Amino acid sequence: MNSIVIDNFSKLKLSLFYLPAFLISAILSLLYIEDSLRAESYIKIQQDYFFLLNSILSRYPSIQYNLTETGNALVVFSFLSIFILYAPKLWESLASALLISCMFSSFLKKIFAVPRPAAVFNNDSFIIIGKTLSGNNSVPSGHSITVFTALTLLLFAFMPRKLKLKIIWSSFIVITGLILVFTRVGVGAHYPIDVIIGSIIGYVSALLGIFISKKYNLWKWINEKKYYPFFITASLVCSLVLINKIINENFIIYYLSLLTLTFSLIKIVAVYAKK
Question: Phosphatidic acid phosphatase type 2/haloperoxidase domain spans which residues (predicted)?
Fold first, then answer.
């Protein structure tokens, strides 16, 4: 499996950055034309779409909450943990990509300082699922960045060779990603453009992570057995956090995460014990 990932990553070209550059330019151009580069007008231009999507998606609160938590770094770690053993090259890229995505998210949120829906609208005018978020950090959506960072890595890591299968695989990843990120509108945490921008940044972060890991091999130690205790410890800590979330929130996404993480932990311990 690791050889497949290495081979697929080696084929990637810098031209893959053209699409996100075009999309970001198109969004900025649209906002500029509509005089919506200021926080107030940025919110106003999409408030009708926000209320519409929120009212439709929030009809299924449990589904929305479970799906939106796929943007939680803890859940991402759990679901991808098995690749530490079978595709460490993916994890090398993921490590760089997550650091880059965190920097993007933190920097841009401070720069734009756009109030979240709960800080602008009457909280009784739309549905809020889960914790009420009311800070001035709406753009970009951090969950959306995380989701598309992980999915973009999976997209290119396991890209099929045949064109027909490439189209099917790419469509599946993109559609899945959009379903997941728009839950942020469904739970009342973000505006539609927030999640679109976040998705694009996640895509860019993943590509940067891949190219950086190809050139510098910063995380090659991930593939070495002697460092498995680090992942074992991290998995145990994450397991305790997930158990605490199950006790307090009892959502199926945490059960699935814990199940996946436990399976990975057993496999990693078994491999490490054979040294």
Answer: 91-210
Nearest to 66 by CA among 239, 251, 247, 190: 251
Kindly state the helix (H) or strand (E) to which residue 28 belongs, with its residue range: helix 18-33
How many angstroms separate the Cα of 224 from the Cα of each of 84, 123, 173? 10, 51, 30
**Per-domain boundaries in the chain:** 2-223
Instruction: Assess whether pLDDT exceeds 70 at residue 275.
Output: no
The residue among 70, 211, 90, 258 whose CA lies nearest residue 148 is: 70
Cα–Cα distance for residue pair 114/154, rounded to 1 Å:
31
Name residues whose C-beta falls within 8 Å of residue 98's C-beta, 6 or more positions apart in sequence. 73, 146, 149, 205, 209
Q: What is the pLDDT of residues 81-136, one digit of tens each?
A: 999 999 999 999 999 999 999 999 999 999 998 999 999 999 999 999 988 888 89
Q: Which tokens go with 266?
A: 């057993």
Place of tokens 């490439």: 166
Q: What is the 3-state secondary structure (H, E, C) of 208-258?
A: HHHHHHHHHCCCHHHHCHHHHHHHHHHHHHHHHHHHHHHHHCCCHHHHHHH
Retrieve residue 271's tokens: 């491999």
Tell me the one-letter amino acid at 60. Answer: Y
Which one-letter DSSP state was computed for residue 121?
A: S
What six digits make up the tokens of 204? 């860019």
Classify residue 116 by its DSSP letter. Answer: P
| Per-residue pLDDT at 205 | 96
The length of the chain, given as a count of residues: 275
Question: Cis ω on the peptide bond leading into residue 88 (within 30° of 0)?
Answer: no
